[in-house]
Amino acid sequence: MKKLALFSSLLLMSVLFLAACSDEPSPEERFAAYTKLWNKQDFAKMYEYLSPETRKEISADEFEKRYEKIYTGIEADQLKVDYKQPKEEKDHKDGEKVSLSYTVDMSTMAGAVSSEHKATLVKEGEGEEENWYIKWDESYIFPQLEAGEKVSVETYPAIRGEIVDRNERGLAMNGTVAEVGIVPEKMANESETVKKVAGILNMSTDEVNQKLKQTWVKPSYFVPIKKMSNDNSATLEKLLSIAGVSVNNTEERIYPYKEATAHLIGYVGEASAEDLEKLKGKGYTASDVIGKRGLEEVLEARLKGKPGGKIFIKTEDGEEKVIAEKPAEEGETITLTIDAELQKDIFKQYKNEVGSASAIDPKTGETLALVSSPSFDPNKYIFGITKAEQKALEEDPKKPLLNRFSSTYAPGSTIKALTASIALKNGVDPKGSINIQGKTWAKSTWKDHSITRVSDPGVPIDMEKALIYSDNIYFAQKALGLGKEKFTNGLKAFGFDESLNYDYPIKASSIGKIDSEGRLADAGYGQAQVQMSTLHLAMTYSAFLNEGNIPAPFLITGDKIEKKIWKENAISADQANQVTKMLTQVVEHPKGSGHGIADLGIKIAAKTGTAEIKASKNADGTENGWFVAMDTEDPELLMAWMTEDVKGRGGSHVVVDQMKPVLKKYLK
User: Fold this and answer.
1) Which of 95, 98, 343, 557 is the most exposed place for a label (fewest CB within 10 A)?
2) Does 656 have pLDDT greater than 90?
């Protein structure tokens, strides 16, 4: 029995000894736990794993801030500290120091950084306090880093890509501008200087004083007040004659075509807090500029480029230990199909009138011009637009900040060519005429609706005459004869109610609600709720020059221009040819609404349009004038223009007269 009791005691002691051994701290487990905290960037808890000797060298606060400052400065992301814990751990029972291998990978502002490390763990403490601790030093952050050294960064900003037209004329360029500033200590009389500078720069004295009173300003500092074009030599000379005023040259974005391309190209500005939130994770900082409008905004990702940088350690003797370096990548230079001179000439013809215009190559689908009038000078946003200038733009009744070429409007009689096409497609005889007496017509079943035409030619009206005289009653009757389904399906074949797959956001043209015979009749001649953009109108007319097909529109050129079809067989080739011949009579016939351009001596097919705009049926509304014109013998230019408020000024003839000089210049 005594032998049995002794054996039991020895067995129990062995079990307790093994249990005690299994509870001994393991350096592998300790370091695995440490790397988990590191991957979470929980620097406060990481500090608890440092050896007592290390903690004498660096405080918890210093340790935490050191990591945070370096990782923030180098824009560390996707941190991965990899330590592969062995499945079978070594017996470290008699050891006091262990070396373990690990790797650190991260992405930074200077590119990917990858390094291999050795961690030293030491066993310290007694009894229950005994454990394995990290013998930390600066090399754990970067192998090259030594005590007392600092990690520095240098950024290489990306050059923003430029936007040019089809002939490589600059539309959005990186150029040099004059930066006007004041050195406070050199002013002879502060209030007098501020007053003079404000007057010349079209600023208020408060705006100038706000800049001079910024917290960073010192008497000897150059304080930027406003930027301006170097072309304004007379103004710059006047400013430089004032004591205390200096002018520096600085690189900025410039827009050579100013108002003519403002809505198309847009402008850049400093990234706002809202912008940074929206672009989070895409490498933007508060010091970056981003596209604010137009193609500058739409093509931001392609124009921005990729900034580079260098992460390095500067030693006491001035040498550099480079940790990572990445060159900046320049943004893409984007070539548009736009003809900048055509764009400028179209804009010039509007003479600050309200309207929109589009020009395309009808054979290829290339966009040659997209104009919105009135407009604004985007350079003012680069130079620093004043509060007074911004207020004037916002309060201008003509709304120069509104982009009209991306909007839709009632197309008026320009839709009649489409109604004629749909009628032909559904078997209507173009020679069949209707005899209408007077200027007004209504179905006998209509109680409160009628169709009015501009004039009564006193002869039966067939399809060609209906286009020549722009007869509302003829096309209203044709829409009624087709019925809602055939008429709307015909419009959809031309791309109505369908978004454009296009390089610039253009509102889709829409048919609207056709819930009565009256609305169907009105839609047949371009009223009711039918809405079109000038670009889509131009595209629909291109079908007449492409055997009934509509090319896909595009705005940005690639390595090779490839014609793609957007709408195939909107009408047949024969029907397209018939409509084209009728539209040439709109110009050539003495009574044609487009006869005003007949003396150009060019074979042009065209159609005018006048859309009535009123809040209610009995309201006294206004009118928008339209004109679409295309060269039929050498079809490289097709234009659709719209001008608002032409009532009492000649209606659509206003637009014919506006377009005529451009047709003369570009078609002859």
Assistant:
1) 95
2) yes
